[in-house]
Amino acid sequence: MAFQNPEAGAFHWLVDMLESVEVGLVVLDLDFRVQAWNGFMEHHSGITGSHIQNKVLFDVFPDIPQAWLTRKVDAVAMLNTRAFTSWEQRPYLFKFRNTRPITGTEEYMFQNLTISPLTSTTGEVDKICLLIYDVTEFASSKRALERANEQLAKLSMTDRLTGLLNRGTWENLVDAEYERYRRYGQATSLVMFDIDHFKPVNDNYGHLAGDEVIRHTAKVTRNSIRQSDSAGRYGGEEFGIILPETDAENARLICERIRESIEKSTMETSAGNITYTISMGIAQLTDEPENYMQWMQKADEALYAAKESGRNRVVVAE
C-alpha cells in the first residue's frame, strides 16, 4: 500500500518503529531537557513521554550520576562523535528493575549505553540521543560464569573437608614467606601441629566422628588467627600455620590460645562426646635454613619434641 503523502507516511512508520523497538531512546537538548522518550522508556520507568517532555533529566532521575553523564555528553557534543559505555563499566544509567523472568536473579536491569550527537540543519550539534540496551541476560550469564570460575579456583586451593588451604597451596605460601624473609628480614614464624591420638578416635568413634574432629580443629584454628595469617591442612590430622611478622614468643601465645581452646572443648557427635588435644611445634625463621623445606623441617622437629615430651603442649624450636 502506497502512502498518499509519502513524507507523512514515512514519519508515521518511523515513530511507530521507535515506540515498539526493544531499545530505550531518549533525546535531550544540551540543557538535558527531554525532547523524546520512547515506549521502552515509558514501560520501564512508568513515566509517559508527555509527562517528562521538556523536563530536565536529572530532576526526574536524581540517581543518575550527573557529573559523569555531563562530561560524556559535553565530549560527544564538542567532538561530534559517539560514545559507548558497557554494563561492565557502569551497570546501568537508569535504575530500572529487572522484569525478565529468565534473569530473575538480578535485581536491576543491566544496560549498555550509546550517546550520539544530533545535528541541526546548520550542522551544529544541538541535541543528544541516548540509546539504552537491556543486556541483563548476557550480564547475568557472564556474572554467573565468573562466580562459578571463582568458586572453582577457590576449591582448587582449599581442602574440601576443612575449608583451609590445601597442602599444595599452603606450601607455596610457605615458600613465598621464606623468600620475603630473605629479602626484608622481618620476623616470621611457622607452626606445624596435629591431633593427639587421632587413630583411637577413628577406631572408637568411627571415621565420620573423626572428620568432625578435624573440622572442629580447623574451625578453632581459623577463629584464633589473624587475617594476615595462613592456615592449611597439611594432610590427615596434621595442620600448619604461617604467622608473618611474628616472633617465636608471640607465635607461642597464639598457639597456646588454640591449644587451650581445643583442650577445653567437647565435641558432640552421634557416636558420643569426644574430648581431644593437639601438639604444636613452632619455628621462627632465621638465616640458617637454606630453603623453605628446611624451615618446615624445623617446625616439624619441634612438633615431634612436643609429642615426645607428653603431648598437649607447644614447643618452640631451638
Describe this structure in words.
- The chain has about 325 residues and is α+β, with helices and mostly antiparallel strands.
- The protein has two domains: about 5-150, Beta-Lactamase (2-Layer Sandwich), CATH 3.30.450.20; about 155-315, Alpha-Beta Plaits (2-Layer Sandwich), CATH 3.30.70.270.
- About 45% of the residues lie in helices and about 20% in strands.
- Strand 7 (about 230-235) and strand 8 form a beta hairpin.
- Helix 7 crosses helix 11.
- The chain is elongated and about 95 Å long.
In brief:
The chain has 318 residues and is of the alpha+beta class. The chain is 45% helix and 22% strand. α7 crosses α11.
CATH fold annotation of the largest domain: Alpha-Beta Plaits
String of helices and strands = HEEHHHHEEEHHEHHEEHEEEHE
Helix content: 40-55%
Describe the global form: elongated
User: What is the C-alpha radius of gyration, as a whole number of Å?
Assistant: 33 Å
CATH architecture call of the largest domain: 2-Layer Sandwich
Give the amount of beta strand, in percent.
15-25%
Largest sheet: 5 strands, antiparallel
Q: Provide mean pLDDT, rounded.
A: 89
Annotation, overall tally of beta strands: 12
Number of helices: 11
Structural class: alpha+beta
Our measurement of the CA-to-CA distance between the termini, rounded to an integer number of angstroms, reads 99 Å
Number of domains: 2
Identify low-pLDDT runs. 1-6
Strand arrangement in the largest pleated sheet: 2-1-5-4-3
- The CATH first-level class of the largest domain comes to Alpha Beta
CATH superfamily of the largest domain: Reverse transcriptase/Diguanylate cyclase domain
Organism: Marinobacter nauticus (Marinobacter hydrocarbonoclasticus)
Pfam families: GGDEF (PF00990), PAS_4 (PF08448)
Protein name: diguanylate cyclase
Enzyme class: transferase
